[in-house]
Amino acid sequence: MPGSPLPLHVAVALDGAGWHPAAWREPGARPTELFSARYWTDLVRTAERGLLDFVTIEDSLGLQSGDHLAAPERRTDRVQGRLDAELIAAFVAPLTSRIGLVPTVTTTHTEPFHVASALATLDHDSRGRAGWRVQTSVRPDEAAHFGRRSIPGLRRDQLHTPEAEALVAELFGEAADAIEVVRRLWDSWEDDAEIRDAATGKFLDRAKLHHVDFVGDRFSVRGPSIVPRPPQGQPLVVSLGHGDEPYRLAARGADVLFVTPHDVHQARGIVGRVREIETEVGRDEPLRVLADLVVVLAPTREEADERLARLDATDPLTSDAAILATTPSALADLLVSWQEAGLDGYRLRPAVLPTDLDHIVDRLVPALQERGAFRTAYVGSTLRERFGLPRPTSRYATVGSPA
Amino acid sequence: MSQPDRPRKQIVLGAYFPGVNHDTVWSDPASGSHIDFASFEHWARTAERGKLDLLFLAEGLRIRTRGEDFFDQDVVGRPDTFTVLAALAAVTGHIGLAGTINSTFNEPYELARKFATLDVLSGGRAAWNVVTSSDAPTGENFRRGGYLGHHQRYERAGETLAAVRALWDSWGSDALVADPSSGTFLRDGHVGDFELHGNQFDIAGRFTVPRSPQGHPVILQAGESPAGRDFAAANADAIFSRYQKFDEARAFYDDVKARVAKAGRNPDEVRILPSAAVVLGDTEAEARERHAEIHDRQVDPWTAIVLAEMVWNRDLSGFDPDGPVPDVEPTPEAPTWIRGRAPLTQDAHATAKAWREISTARGLSLRETVKHVFDRAVFVGTPEHVADEIDRYVRADACDGFILGSHVSPTGLDEIVEKVVPILAARGVFRTEYEEGTLRENLGLAPPARFGERRAATSAGVAS
């Protein structure tokens, strides 16, 4: 169809009662159910009904704080507490069939070996729908929960001091190492390692298991993984970035990058910068770049403005991402028009759950479909396929063995 | 809950997933995937159909090696325990979900988060089998490396458990208010606070997961050495054992229950649950024949050599499995020959001597001796016979129940559930319907508040 837009990727970011701090007090919110299996199952099933690419599930190794660089403020009027995101994803895996499941797992205090095993298993259990949203843990209070290292922390007004830049470089370097180790572990069993040959009594072709022998500053991992190669070969790796250091991390190790432009002009600039960095690090397959947007949706623009104003009057929202209070139809137009900046799609952050998720699924998705900008049925079985990414051959595959 | 109107002691039954070892016969035509979730789902639904108390998954932290080679003879590889248990929580409604998770290569904050989350998602069905490791090769996969001395294993396990319990207690059951009208989400600004100092940990801050339905997921342990038994007696809600012969089981039961009492706890609040492989037949003769075939496949000639190597800690591939027990001495001081499997013996020389004596006294070859030593099938017979035996053990206080399994996954449990469990239910010694309530309640265990108080009075080394 000449002139029609390319199909967009649309993901949704799930976090507590939604991304607005007053979300939990809204009519329709389910504040007493935020820590329940039913709540998370309902949200992910709703997103799947809308044919969305994937859900991300936020997580951290400490309570929420208003400034995500700072320790929690001991407030009692905001949502505090989380379930483990990877286990939420594991729980909903058998209750869904097509949507991608992308939990947040930090690289700072966790064991890469366990992370690789957990996500490989999520991929097996979901039949190729697992992803990993990579995150670093920068807060000193999170480090104190583990007591194994001291992290001085970052202050928002001193992000460009040498000390701050050294800390960021350390944490992102460790994250890059963690991604490298995890990907090696996913490759450490070749696809056809399990042979079950009764004639020879061999369960395994041991030539097809490999040590990964990673040695880094923060950890060394010998491998191989305890879990056989996951269905996708390597589950989808995604990260969020606001500048060169995280763009570089993504260009080196991720498949999908979330960015936070506030208008189409910024989006063009960010995508351009990401492409430059991809060239610098010698990356071949381009990152899929999705813009993060906080959305407050209503049938009319006035109602959307009123909803946001009411929420802000209770507890104002500040965000790294653009905040859009608008109609599903106008949002559909905007998502299509920003594509020209080179974006592959969007990760929408519903301001209020389930209200804005319902609007996305029941109003925005049909509006995008009318514009020829979104799928009308799921195609492909794995999350990588949805993003047009090939299934990687294990880096350890013996020459001549089938891909 | 306890059932005072029932005259007979109620049996606890669990199911283990066939393991990553020679007991699991992957070459059996009925053997399915050990990785696909469909296998776990089949197994879990079968166990729940039988109204069993709990499912049990082991863990893997490294691939087994023999010398420099990956071990290729047995089932190799397994999925992540937590991830599978959380997925099973979604497809089951009543059964307990128990997983082995190492206390050496995990940190308390993460352990507490994962088990509390599993308990929330499953509606109060989570259980943790606490194990320790001082195996340096296993440490090769982890940040800490193989740093932990053997003598520190239980110190770390004890401090880990105390820290995890303190984290679980850091959200009171009334911490979550979530009242939009008053704008109060948390009861106060100190919800989740914790501070723990010990030899192994120096941690403080705030925990992220609200108090789970059980408060404290059920704690399982499998101590065998005197120190291990004391640790289990002081800390566990249920204790696994591999003492399966009736007299051994009776002795273990008495010993551990005495240790429980000595630790200041009520012995009735600790369940003792040996694992037991079951082989059924329509007649006793058929069951024995089937067992002989299975056992012959479990301990094939090469496996006999490898199991002997685990005792001798040296390459025995030059010995004939159909010949005598090797006349060379074990070399326990040498680098570990087979890595990634729990040691079979604490005293290699004594074990080797015992094997030679068995061989001589009974006229057995090496392989026959190994088969004799490793006959793990506890219950072989007709369904009536197996039900009689389970009932006899429990009635005689040789145990409180069993963790049952077979040599085939995932369908090996099917006939146990279909043929043996109904007999026990008909006798009134096993449930016919699930009770409402958490795993902890259904096992008749102490509620965590009381347990927590007692822990605070007896635990040493960690102050909260």
Walkthrough of the structure:
The complex is a heterodimer of chains A (about 400) and B (about 475). Chain A is of the alpha/beta class. Chain A has eleven helices and 13 strands. Chain A has helices at about 35-50, 85-90, 110-125, 140-145, 160-185, 245-255, 265-280, 300-315, 330-340, 355-370, 385, and strands spanning about 10-15, 55, 100-105, 130-135, 195, 200-205, 215, 220, 235-240, 255-260, 290-295, 320-325, 345-350. An eight-stranded parallel beta barrel of chain A has the order 1-2-3-4-9-10-11-13, surrounded by seven helices. A two-stranded antiparallel sheet of chain A has the order 5-6. Chain B has about 475 residues and is α/β, with parallel strands linked by helices. Helix content of chain B is about 40%, strand content about 15%. Chain B contains 15 helices and 16 strands. In chain B, the strands form four sheets. In chain B, strands 1-2-5-6-11-12-13-16 form an eight-stranded parallel beta barrel, surrounded by seven helices. Chain B has a three-stranded antiparallel sheet with strand order 4-3-14. In chain B, a hairpin with a 4-residue loop joins strand 7 and strand 8. In chain B, helix 1 runs parallel beside helix 13 (about 410-425) and helix 10 (about 350-360) packs across helix 11. Residues about 450-464 of chain B have low confidence and may be disordered. At the A-B interface, helix 2, helix 3, helix 4, strand 6 and strand 8 of A face strand 4, helix 2, helix 3, strand 7 and strand 8 of B.
